[in-house]
Amino acid sequence: MALRAPKGTTDLIGRDGEAWHFMQQAAISCFAKYGYKIIETPTFEQLDVFVRGIGEATDVVGKEMFLVNSTSSLNKLVAGEKLKSEDVLALRPEMTAGVARAIVEGNLVPPDATTTKFVYAAPMYRHERPQKGRLREFHQIGAECIGAPEPSADAEVIIMLIQFFESIGIPKDKMRLLVNSMGDDNCRPAYRQSIREFILDHAGALCPDCVRRADTNPLRAFDCKNADCQQVLSSAPKITDMLCLECKEHYQSVKAFLDASKVEYIEEPRLVRGLDYYTRTVFEVQVSEGLGSQSAIGGGGRYDKLIQEFGGKPTPGLGFAIGFERILMVIDAVGTYKFGTYGIDVYVAAVDDSTRAQSFAIARELRDAGVAVELDHQNRSLKSQFKHADKSGAAHIIIVGPDELNQGVVKLRSLATREEELVKLNDIVASAKDRLFNSE
Ligand code: AMP
Q1: What is the pLDDT of residue 338?
Q2: CB distance 90 to ligand 1 below 6 Å
Q3: Ligand 1 atom 18 nearest Cα
């Protein structure tokens, strides 16, 4: 049977691959202006990192994890043996839990440290039902801002997210910024209890999953994808009516910072987001066009308890993640594509076999000088090398013929104007660069 990419994965080829690369660069340089530094963590972690970080009762951990087995751990399992917890590994479904693990393990943000900011760009894995905008391997760009408890940090992170989307060509008027506060350990338990009671009171009208959530994690019911459940839950109590004084003040202050910066937002009291670690501010950016039944292109929030949960000192944190594949869909639907592309500058063509070695040497000399060069490796005729040159997108072609070589020259031809000149072998690099970078 033919080998295929696993369900829910895609190959990023051509424009998509370049877009991924350029979008990472765009994010890193945009976020660097706010003091963010790159972090890379392993693609897989101990399963416990995600269980303790994201929460066992979330869909992401409860239903969608990809476990990683080595051959020996698989053999143990088959033999009915138990694995040590450090040998139970999983592909990361998101990055924040791994970053928090790295912070605690490396003591990256000691209690007296100034705010420390991390940016990442990496593939994530969730065993979801694949559909438009929902993949099993997808790519996220994200930011984590550690050590800043003040609401100005929440506003800064949100503003940076919007600025990034605008910088890659997503029009402001196509984006909706939703904000909410999820409260904290003081006020959320009472809210959770009120939602639990609401679910039990409306059990007949809700799906079995939502009813089950009453006992495991009632707030997750707000993430239910069933439209009837959403309809019923629209009359559930709102967390913003039950926030404690400190959470209320924090939320109000975040909004005041956004107002002062003239950032438009919609308050959405049912925005709870699918991960358990959030406290206080949560936010999401949605776009209606181009995403099928999905709408979120990025979102995040504050997670002031996560680092402590991993054994670190109490350290506030907040961050967001952006879905690359969804952004690409939005850009195709309503945006302007602003990513660069990699192209070939010069094609080196050998007139016959006698000049192939010399052509090869010229290509190498040009590449050493920073020129993007393509040449033939299939023993093609000169005519088909010309065709290949046209397809390669090269601006110029260098034609290496035996007669010219005898005179110490090659032909340098513009593929656009067909103008041609003879260039001395010693001058090839200088002439090519002059044509490429100093024309017009
Ligand atoms: P989350 O970590 O669930 O908050 O997701 C952050 C962003 O990642 C979302 O707003 C989406 O843009 C993107 N995303 C999440 N899950 C998927 C998925 N399965 N396929 C593609 N993009 C996703």
Answers
A1: 66
A2: no
A3: 134
